[in-house]
Every structure is written in C-alpha cells, then in structure tokens.
Amino acid sequence: MQTDIDPRSLIGSKAFDREGTKIGTVDEVYLDDATGVPEWAAVRTGLFSRDAFVPLEPSEFVKDALRVPFDRTLIRDAPDFGVGRHLSPEQELQLYRHYGLDSPPEETAPDRDFGRLAGQDE
Q1: DSSP-assigned beta bridge partners for residue 31
Q2: Residues in the chain with pLDDT values less than 70
Q3: Which of 8, 17, 55, 65 has the fewest CB atoms within 10 Å of its CB?
Q4: ∠ CA 60-86-65 to the nearest 5 degrees?
Q5: How far apart are CA 95 and CA 47, in angstroms?
Q6: b/e string for 7-41 if b means 16 or more Cβ within 10 A?
C-alpha cells in the first residue's frame, strides 16, 4: 500500500474485495509500533457483524476506497481479535498465516506490541 497516506484518511472509507464486491467500512487502522507504517485495517463487515482485519500490504487505496486483493470469504473468516487494542505479535502472525503472507521480519526487542491504533499516543 502507499505509505504516504495519512492512516486517518482510511477510516470511514469503503473496502472492496478482489472482485470489487463491497466488504464493509474501515473502522480502525493499526500501525506497526517499530516503523509507524500502517499495517492492518479493521473493516466492519456488516451492520450487526464484526470487524475483520485486512492487511494493508498488498492492498491499495484508490479513489477513496480500500481495495483488498483477497476473496470476501477469506476476509470474513479472518481471526477475530476484537478492535480497539494492540495486536500481539502472535495475533499478527496468525493474520499473516491466514492470508498466506510472509511474516514480517522479527524485531530486535521481543516484547514490543504491534498494531498501535492510528491517532492514539502512547
């Protein structure tokens, strides 16, 4: 994904799967604590549904919409960790595996959390 986009601009945008089918609306964006780069988005998948985490890499932000290059079913079946808190390294690894993506390189400090919410100070 383009790393020069303000992650707050993603919040409220519509998200679409690889077929162009709407999957929901971006509720939150999670940043990597080590780099500050937006890494995951929580997408509200329906009025009475839960948020599904989607990877921002290899997704694209085009014309005020998040294009996620995965099937809608895979997205809806993503592990549910709740929103509004950090993703642990173990949870992030589960998401990488779920989407069949390479894991991020290991950090030098093993106790660091990933997934700090955009717009929140520590």
Answers
A1: 38, 116
A2: 1-5, 47-48, 105-116, 119-122
A3: 8
A4: 20
A5: 23
A6: beebbebebbbeeeeebbbbbbbbbbbeeeebbbb
Residue 80 one-letter amino acid? D
Give bridge partners of residue 38 from the DSSP assignment. 31
Question: Six-digit token pair at 58?
Answer: 């290899």
- What is the rounded distance in angstroms from the CA atom of residue 115 to the CA atom of residue 49? 21
The identity of residue 41, as a single letter, is A
Q: Can you give the pTM of this predicted structure?
A: 0.80
CB 22 within 8 A of CB 43: no
The H or E element spanning position 53 is strand 51-55
